[in-house]
Design brief:
The chain is an all-beta fold. The protein is built from no helices and 11 strands.
Length: 169
């Protein structure tokens, strides 16, 4: 009978939880290797003198950290193709900056961008956590993260530790 209502109709609600971010690449420097950590395209590139090194002076997570002085730079690339919600997290501390000294964090997604700056006055020799949203940049196969000192002496220090890029692949 076409006029009878079907009393066996059920309503089903489906909830889809978004994927949780995962670690894409990380390095805590404890392995004391320039190609250490996981998820990177290759080793750290290091330029300028004095060259970046892995130090043991009060790291954020023992036993090592990355140390930059004067005009040293360290950069590394990672494949972020198809990644959504990418974030860069790292711990930093600065020491002995003078007027005009600074350190910058840059990315290159096909173009170069400065995404974080540490200035004279931020150099309290204490660890600080930085979390930077990368999702507005192009997720390329050779996405570069660069840490760059812009000091004027070998006594200007930037320390970095526990660098991590997370996102949804």
């Amino acid at each position: 009978n076409d006029t009878m209502a079907d009393s066996n109709v059920a309503t089903v609600n489906i909830t889809i939880n978004p994927a949780a971010p995962v670690t894409i690449a990380s390095h805590n420097f404890d392995d004391n290797k320039w190609n250490g950590g996981t998820g990177w395209n290759g080793p750290w590139s290091r330029v300028n003198s004095p060259a970046p090194n892995m130090g043991t002076r009060s790291p954020h997570s023992a036993p090592r950290m990355l140390r930059l002085r004067n005009t040293a730079q360290a950069a590394r690339t990672v494949n972020l193709t198809g990644v959504t919600g990418a974030q860069l997290t790292f711990w930093w501390k600065a020491r002995a900056f003078e007027s005009g000294d600074k350190a910058v964090v840059q990315i290159n997604d096909g173009s170069s961008h400065t995404i974080f700056t540490i200035n004279n006055g931020d150099d309290d020799d204490n660890w600080h956590k930085a979390t930077i949203d990368l999702s507005s940049y192009n997720m390329t196969s050779n996405f570069e993260i660069r840490f760059k000192m812009q000091g004027n002496s070998d006594k200007d220090y930037l320390y970095l530790d526990d660098i991590e890029i997370t996102g949804i692949p």
